[in-house]
Amino acid sequence: xxxxxPTLIRLAxxxxxxxxxxxxxxxxxxxxxxxxxxxxxxxxxxxxxxRGDGALRLDGEGLELEWIALDGQHLTAxxxxxxxxxxxxxxxxxxxxxxxxxxxxxxxxxxLEGLYLxxxxxxxxxxxxxxxxxxxxxxxxxxxxxxxxSLEADRAQYPVLLANGxxxxxxxxxDGRHRACWDDPFPKPSYLFALVAGDLSRVSDRFRTASGxxxxxxxxxxxxxxxxxxxxxxxLKNAMGWDEDRYGRExxxxxxxxxxxxxxxxxAMENKGLNIFNAKAVLASPDTATDQDFQWxxxxxxxxxxxxxxxxxxxCRDWFQLSLKEGFTVFRDQEFSADRGSRGVKRIADVRMLxxxxxxxxxxxxxxxxxxxxxxxxxxxxxATVYEKGAELARMLAHLxxxxxxxxxxxxxxxxxxxxxxxxxxxxxxMEAVSGRDLSQFKRWYSQAGTPELEIAGTYDPAAQAYELRxxxxxxxxxxxxxxxxxxIPLALGLLxxxxxxxxxxxxxxxxxxxxxxxxxEIREPEQVFHFIDIPEPPLPSLLRGFSAPVxxxxxxxxxELLFLMAYDSDGFNxxxxxxxxxxxxxxxxxxxxxPSIPAGFYEAGRRALTDTRAExxxxxxxxTLPNESYLGDQMTQVAVExxxxxxxxxxxxxxQELSGEFRAGYELNQDRGPYEPSPEAMGRRAxxxxxxxxxVAAGEAEALGLCRDQxxxxxxxxxxxxxxxxxxxxxGAAGEEALAAFYDQWAxxxxxxxxxxxxxxxxxxxxxxxxxxGLLGHPAYSPTNPNRVRxxxxxxxxxxxxxxxxxxxxxxxxxxxxxxLDPLNPQxxxxxxxxxxxxxxxxxxxxxxxxxxxxxxxxxEKLSKDAYxxxxxxxx
Length: 877
Ligand code: BES
Ligand code: ZN
Hints:
Helices cover 40% and strands 21% of the residues. By secondary structure, it is of the alpha+beta class.
């Protein structure tokens, strides 16, 4: 347990800051072992806040205070108090200037928050509360200041010196030192502060904004990675153009700098004018990055760029509003990627991920609303709920308003709140203002946790030619929220006739022309009935088209109906959804003891999908991908770890055998003909080709492993190489071992590829995975202080259901050891890993006992971080 009981921070306790900071000048004397930070703050009382006791309390953690002066007067120990978290000045005037100088130790910073060293490069991470590890400050997002920064360092060691905003000069100093000054004209909260110092090389380009501003674009990397920046640069320019077209948003500084670092807790960070990226989210070349990596890099680059407006120009009032910037920005990056590639396939991928991560979170002890009510450690709230569900809320608003009104609403939001720190209510108020709609019920989506369930039933009346659709909504209780209120849910649907055509959807009382197709119904009541008329035959409903709301739908489809939807629905998303439902149903029945009873229609549907020459290959691959094991587990009252694994493998084998000819043909047909292209079409073909190869292996086809070996050895591109390697390793035996050794020899010098080598072994299907993973902890390339390495080895293992949930508890014990090892080094990473243990209620009593015992022993550890404490305590509650 932490030595003092951690405090709970509540939204209800929000108060405006007593003081504001108009401007701050920071002067850094940079060095890895010891950096001095001199800060000059221009402070004044906030006229909009209540007067407190006259004291000023600044945040500060791990700082060594060397000097302090108020309006030029040096202060002495009677004037202030310092503790672990703050500096308090007992008496201050209404307006004054405060100077401090502190010392920090970047080389000892393994938490990667504040100022730290990564491969000899100095860099910062301040969101959410890292700035207080750099200097004393009002480290909260509703205090927005103008920053000017001076950086001084040894020229040979740190030739490149970067900070936020525009460069305003460099200077050579004595003793081989130099200085660079930066000025950011836009007031910003401290969490957007950044600096970088190091021996970096860059790729440069230019962008001309719609209004003619010339922007210099730089991507800074370690010299050996210069050839891996092209994709990120193209993505940046595309994102800049897209935000102008779609949202009317232009960039606002003279330079846009992106820096790639090797040690980073997250994917990337949107610091004003100086984005800092996990190298994994920037670097991409065909040899080293998979198609998925290419898509991810493009999405992250866009996401951080889009924050310049949704997050930076308009920021959050407090951290409970995190989804204001993150949810909205994820929606923006999802739409960007949808426009760049295949919209339908992107939607499927996003929904897959929402269901796998957010629905699971909502169903467990860490469930919380998109706008949480309280937290112990804000870093624990960068969650699938705040991000992915938050994005769904923005998407629903866009749907409810329609494209034109939604654009007017975002225009209003950006102009009304430019330069402000605001709330999700302010965001919704803009939607209300332009549309004249009352969205008060919609706002419950922000405050109410849990995944709503829609129970839907239809009745056809042949005499009246009418179809009645009854919709009941229900949200199961979540921790702290036993009773749920009805939500405002946009339900997009269609009704299919017996030929699979969309019928015109006329509600009773409606006149005029109505076109056939999708219609958006708005659900507001706990139970609601819709009467469709002029329906000439019993229709088949296609519900929640495009996944129009983050809900679960229950409708009693027959197998035949699902097969029909899979074949004919005009909505691509719902064709995929029908396939998923069908395979889920077969698999769950299999697990429940019915064994493999697979209707011939299932194989037929698979065959039809696989040989559909008009369909996009990427969509075919999605349709033929069975729901994954953990998602299947989520659908059961008690997760049957091994049975799910066996059923899923078994169904793959049968499908592979039944359709072996088609898979063989699919494998040949979708080979790359020319050189590697990261285009959506080429990626789709590779996805389908590798899916076919997987089925051929599952089928036990004699030559399948030979094909894998050939593909692995051909080294055409990382997508193909890794797909083959994974199959070889999963198959076990000498071929897998040889391929792993060859892969290591080929890639030992490339950290990001080596991460894949670790991850593949930790995700392996066969026996002995834990032993292998334990062995890899001792590999010279493993390091607990590199989050990418930890994620590739430890997090990958925890996501591998069979060995992680081994009935002897060995997987759980392994995780406890790692959490206790990591917590003192990097609490954020430790707390994230720990989440794998909190859903113990979903398992049998034996496993429940094992998982709880590990949580308890973690909670009993001395000096546990707030991060890990919060997860473990909630996990046990
Ligand atoms: N602002 C976040 C990064 C962040 C998160 C910093 C938590 C500190 C604590 C950034 O905009 C972000 O959301 N990054 C995502 C990637 C994005 C594509 C969703 C990430 O890092 O995973
Ligand atoms: Zn973000």
